[in-house]
Write the structure tokens for this entry.
Amino acid sequence: MRCPFCQNDDTRVVDSRLTEDRDAVRRRRECEACNERFSTVEEANLKLPFIVKSNGDRENYDESKLARGLQRALEKRPVESDQIEQILHRIKRNLLTCGEREINAREIGELVMNELRVVDQVAYVRFASVYRSFQDVDAFSDEIKRLQAETIRGRRATRSKAGGANNTNPGKLER
């Protein structure tokens, strides 16, 4: 690896560690010529699938667009920014590992809703109202009733499984 300070091609690895999410390797390097130290990050080079919009247009995955949608849904809600980053990371990882070259935007919307349902139910309803284009109060009411029923079923399942493992990846893309 070339030194960013003196452009020398001879550098050596001083230390290697996995990143916190264990998806990359952080390497501490030292230049053999100028003795300056710098860090690099090495990760697998996987391609994200193209997103197929409802009108048939195809576009590249845009994480900032997804982040804006999440932030709008989570506005003034008690959700930390690191939780939003974790949601974005899980969705991106899911897309990277799904093995598809193209994926419908609707499937990404479903992944987001699955994540929001677990993190913040108000944000879930906000996102669902836009995503599913609710036209009237009845559509809101129906979605809230569905969410309440799921919550009750989830509580019952948790009680009956006392000590069982919880789903740690609510946004898993099913293929």
